[in-house]
Amino acid sequence: MQRDELADFLRRRRAAIRPADVGIADGPRRRTAGLRREEVAMLAGMSVDYVVRLEQGRSSQPSAQLLAALARALRLSEDERAHLFRLAGHQPPPAAGPAALARAGLIRMLDLLGDTPAMVISDLGEVLAQNRMSVLLSGDQSGFAGDRRYLIHRWFTEPGARAVAEPGEQERHARQHVADLRAVAGRRAGDPLVTGLVDRLLAASADFRRLWAEHEVAQRRADRKTFRHPRVGRLTMDCETLVTPDLGQKLLVLTPADAEARERLELLRVLGAEDFPATHHAGSA
């Protein structure tokens, strides 16, 4: 691990980002060039103290998961991300596949959406990036490893993953997850990443086996879903999905479906992340 080089790289990348680039208001009293350390910490989902220690060359070796979070927060390119991993003493993850970066254009759209919850996910349901309002609404879904990084795997193997959705909507969401995976499996026939995920789900979940046997196929697009939030209650949201030309990544945008949801979403924005339950992870994107 090259602590001094890592510290210098992180400081310079932080200074190179304008607050507006990541959806943060640039107030009149700002004296720091680029982002503040606490803003990087918020975007990366880690403590300010840890960011300080990294930038001062005093930290222990960061995990690959923390490095991926920093790469997203600092909007690093694939080359910059690989450099970050090497400085920290890790082998860079592949540019494609399960550790793929969200496309730069989708990240810019994510930032421009500001107070509208939105996230970028892969075609297999791995969350690649979220904006602040998405994290406040449905929890940080980008820090999982192994099969848990896939929304569909958590949905069918972890009962708590369904808790964010209304009980009456859970069967519909389950069918949508499976039909969407069927579409991906057809498009990426023979891809071991897809077939392996399907095989493991078939082995792990009777519910998944039941729905997979029905052979429903449908790519998820527009939808309406009701979130059960632990702080502000029920929010009915309309979900629009924008898909990249190669169908490899999606931008999911959630907008309030009614006045009540709009008021509760605004309350959530005002409340912010203070005392936000650390265990609140959604599984029904």
Automatic annotation (TrEMBL):
CDD domains per record = HTH_XRE
Q: Which Gene3D superfamilies match?
A: 3.30.450.180, lambda repressor-like DNA-binding domains
SUPFAM superfamilies noted in UniProt: lambda repressor-like DNA-binding domains
Which ranges carry the HTH cro/C1-type domain? 33-81
Organism superkingdom: Bacteria
Single GO MF descriptor: DNA binding
Tell me one Pfam family matched here: MLTR_LBD
User: Which PANTHER family is this protein grouped with?
Assistant: BLL4672 PROTEIN, BLL4672 PROTEIN-RELATED
Q: This protein is called what?
A: Helix-turn-helix protein
The protein's organism comes out as Actinoplanes xinjiangensis
